[in-house]
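Cont'd.
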Amino acid sequence: MENFFQILARDPFSRARSGKLELSHGTVFTPVFMPVGTLAAVKGLLTEQLEEMGTDILLANAYHLYLRPGMDIIQKAGGLHRFMNWRKSVLTDSGGFQVFSLAPLRKISENGVVFRSHIDGSLHEFTPEKVIEIQEILGSDIMMPLDECIGHSGLYEEAEQALRRTLSWFERSYVAKKREDQVLFPIVQGGMFLELRRKAAAHALSFDPPGLAIGGLSIGESKEKTREILDFLIPLLPENKPRYFMGLGTPEDLLEAVEQGVDMFDCVFPTRAGRTGLAFTKRGRLVVRNAPFRLDFSPLDPDCLCYVCKHYTRAYIHHLIHAREMLASILLSYHNVYFMIQLMKEVQKAVKEGRFKPFKESYLQSMRGDGRFEEMGLSEK
Amino acid sequence: MENFFQILARDPFSRARSGKLELSHGTVFTPVFMPVGTLAAVKGLLTEQLEEMGTDILLANAYHLYLRPGMDIIQKAGGLHRFMNWRKSVLTDSGGFQVFSLAPLRKISENGVVFRSHIDGSLHEFTPEKVIEIQEILGSDIMMPLDECIGHSGLYEEAEQALRRTLSWFERSYVAKKREDQVLFPIVQGGMFLELRRKAAAHALSFDPPGLAIGGLSIGESKEKTREILDFLIPLLPENKPRYFMGLGTPEDLLEAVEQGVDMFDCVFPTRAGRTGLAFTKRGRLVVRNAPFRLDFSPLDPDCLCYVCKHYTRAYIHHLIHAREMLASILLSYHNVYFMIQLMKEVQKAVKEGRFKPFKESYLQSMRGDGRFEEMGLSEK
């Protein structure tokens, strides 16, 4: 575990750093964006395409895969990598969040959580041990423990009780873990309460984990609140462990979090935005569906070198959206995921060259657009 | 035009032949299957993928593209090839068939046909000249003239009147055509009436066209009827002109038509079947959605060398179908189109080696399945 994470460069003017993770399926340079393949597929993209655009790690979800296709199938396939034809790394979320957000019924006890499947209503139980077992069958490179998730408006007592359970569940997860080729990150919970976050961090660190996940943020709270908690939490964490902010997603959010010292990100936003006709560009987001793009024969992002930007125009993709062609979602998802991967590569470079802060500032300024793009149908979402 | 079509080999035991077409965007070996990209996109597939699987020519539709995105856009893009990022050949259908099958209102006169758009109800007129103009803007390598299509149960008088119009419209199309880098095939119509088919063929040949299209078949009539008309029609056509059977689609149908002397095919079936979860294999069709494939880790077609069969299993695609992942449609469409392209390559080889008949027989026997596949969920559609 000694060489699991290595910091390659630190930004002298912020907590941003660049580093590398050594996982069983290869090296991952950080900061890193992990495309989300919840159900063993990143929506609309072949694993070949993910690899060609430079993806080194992607995310899948234990809750979803346990329910569908089911563990017997993944096991017989020889694990998730082989099942989905992906030879690089995978991080699996435990599905704690999904149990609490998707399942139509759930009953929490000390032992775990009993819930109904959101697909067919069948009854299941997740215990910390069960969730580790699932992820050992999946064979993900980085596993997450079962945790109890509460909303961002939860009361202190509620958050404290949930945290107590999360901590106890992590201890059992830690004990249950058997495979040596996987790592387990504790999830730092604690809701919106700094004191609980401190307690969670201390507990996590007492296990000397290879890395830490930050959970229960980016779930609807204000950006100021997110920043406040990160500002408080990150200094409590040792430098030498990678920090994974679960579910954070827009380019702007990532840059802010990198500055605060976060190393790993995942979000469905790039593919979901793609399916709704939205393209990320260095000059802001384009609602490619809108009329101004009808006759615009420039690439989605003139500064982008991805396959889509090299070969296709806004006018063509605008047409595909209106014709309801699947290819619109494919091209936009490809470009948006590439955009995020590339953004993280540029961040790594900027950190190495000691110019992260100016890089970030000019990037954000450019992303806010120069007015021209707004006229052209830019969404200010 | 002298070298437009060259026959490379003839089967001594049937009318099957293999040859090559010299088009402005490259050589096309026949018999050939042309994937359908009605709206300037083959559903679910990148042009890069079509090229890598060996597609030399694809189909698009003038009626559809005229309505959406509209000719101003295609013109400004520099033609259809550039608009859709396809550097090989394109055949465009005139859209006569679509006017008669999709438009909610149509009024036919000697001059042409007035119709309402099936998209927004707007009123448009197609004349033979207009349809040539549209296809000259599209810049397709092979154009089709406006024709009048009737159902397969049309009466003789109806078919005769429609044919009279189709012939007169072709004369005007022939005169209207200006570009030298495109060719125009007359469409042999005449409904289910041999006498009208003979008249249509004679008229078409009086123009010494580079090739001929056979229209008004595969529109619901019995297979015996199709065969009867082909049997009658093909001997009326000179050997040295390619014959394009419009809209014929299953692997079995193609083999039968090749035997009768047809050289070119198009159909939406491979992609449409893919989107419904159906895979073509040399041993028949697989309904991959069905339960027997849940734990089947073999490729869609064990005899296939396509990208999908090299990397993905039936179990994985079965999962994607049930999870409603777009990737299921993508993978199945890729495989099915590859299957058709590859089938035509094998046909070319069999004809060259003088063994088309045994090749066809063993292929059809294999396609009918060996019983085992039926148990595994094979559709006998």
